[in-house]
Amino acid sequence: MRKLVLLALVGLGAQLVDGSLGMAYGVTSTTLLLAIGANPAAASATVHLAEIGTTLASGASHWKFGNVNWSVVAKIGFPGAVGAFAGATFLSSLDTSVAAPVMSLILLALGVYVLARFTVRGLRKDRLGQPLRKRFLAPLGLFAGFVDATGGGGWGPVGTPAILASGRLEPRKVIGSIDTSEFLVSVAASLGFLIALGSQGINFAWVGALLIGGLVAAPIAAWLVRHIPPRVLGSAVGGIIVITNSRTLLKSDWVDASAGTRWVVYAVIYAVWAAAVAYSVRAHRAESNLAPEPVHPGRELAADPA
Fold this sequence. Notes:
Belongs to the 4-toluene sulfonate uptake permease (TSUP) (TC 2.A.102) family. Pfam families: TauE (PF01925). It is found in: Cell membrane; Membrane. The protein has helices at 2-21, 25-35, 40-64, 70-89, 99-121, 134-151, 155-166, 171-197, 204-227, 230-251, 259-290, 297-303. It has 306 residues and is mostly helical. The protein is globular and about 60 Å long. It has one domain (2-289). It contains 12 helices and no strands.
């Protein structure tokens, strides 16, 4: 019973982060399942089955708060479903030990770009509103879906920074669209796992616990992302991407850093991240103070003697 309560709390926390930052539900939940003894395929299957419900609730909440671009959902979601089904079907025979550090290096570069862009310059507005093309979103969705199924998470960490870096969609709509399209990915991945594994190794009580926690958090996260300033949100997302993928790289066979070295690097990253978020908050307040106050129509008429 204590394990189920813990899983529900993890599901709540993971969905709160995922729904407000566009990533981390799968990574967080899968990590815990592996830590308590689930095999990789069963852990990923368990998380994706829970995500069918959490992503549906999250998508509905983001839609209610106006955080969804349906064109982006369609262009990235259906290719993502194809990639997720393929990744789930062949997970047991795939060796991702080489692919993981390569992916982390790419994501680290994107994370540094997003963190620097939003901290120093805020939201790029010269491209804001320009359409995101299918030739960009379709391959991105295919790759992100494949990574998500084979790694137990990755749809958000791959899709969110790539779209944020384009500067064509404001952060809350990037996150809302990624979370909404993840429903298609979760359904496809779950079907792939059930076809390949059946129900072997899947604990449906664990699925239920993760689902309950995620359902509670979904509307809270959708409200939260609407009220966080884009500049601050971009800095927060960039920092999460950097710290997550730095951790993967430092533990990989490529680097194999000692525990002491890793903690020094983590301390530096956390310090830079905290400073970046603090700077973004101050910059946002300064920009808000400089913005002209909207004129109320009634006041304008009252001030006009004619």
